[in-house]
Write a structure and sequence with these properties.
The chain is an alpha+beta fold and 344 residues long. It has 11 helices and 13 strands. The termini are far apart.
Amino acid sequence: MKATGVTKPVRLGANIKIYGRLFGLLAVAGSLVTPAPSARADDLEKIFDGALGTEVRKPPVHSTFDSLVASVANAQQGRIGVAALDLSSGRPVSVLGDQPFPMASTSKVAIVATFLEGVDQGKWSLTDQFPLMIPVRSAKFSGPKAPVQRGAMMSAGALINLAISRSSNPATDALLAVVGGPTAVNGWIRRAGISGMRIDRDIATLVRDDGEFDPARTVDVRDSTTPAAMIRLLTGLHRGQWLSASSRSVLMRAMERTVTGKRRIPGMMPAGVSVAHKTGTLHNTSSDVGFITTPDGRVMAVAIYVTGQGGKPNRDARIASIARTILDGYEVEDSTPTRTASVR
């Protein structure tokens, strides 16, 4: 999926929030439907019914678990998107799971996967040396691509570890340059059969031009993913759909070593539960995606994208709370006489 230029972002008005909180913003012919602020209630119904059909406005049937996740992901102070999948039972959970959110550094999972596909194909190896791509200072929006300069040479294995576990931007852009840039990653995403995810810029450009739009109030589809698309990516990687066992292991081990986002998905996890994850942070948005594994080996794929909330500490706390609710909810649904987790 090659980017074809800047897509006009969609600003969220009061009327969208009424429907968006429950059902998400739905794409129609490449853009989102935004009713005029002055539209009457019956006009709004006609707009939504004409574009989307009447079914999408019907209240979804939620279990107690779904309702709890929706409650802790309440987005009154900014958009929050959540998707999760119990890889054992196949039970999904979603709150605005089909709405685009800024990927930020969670895109690095797809970038590394694209590189590892090349390893599996014999194009390069983990011991090959590549230069870090160091950003050169430039004015915001001063060009379609931020300037970078070659830095120290490092092995591909070291670059992958830095890109994932420490979220290094120069290491990620080094790998991105090797594979052929965003176009190559979008090609891998397309071959994997994942829709709702796209990469438009390298990390240096993404960071330089950060802050152009407020993601709590605006949907900018550039460099975005839906939580549901990220779950499809994570699930396929975990199940070994696209990478060899050795390449899959390289990526999973790097996610297990992540040192960023200690107050996000891992923040409220009980003793014995392990987390392998990748964080993302940009202007007014924080995210965390990955795997929660219980002591008995149960694995849950989780993708949480949070905007607004009054600041990064609050966004981190929301991510931690949502992740814990997902963990406890799955355990309650699968409770046995020996498993008595409680939802909080």
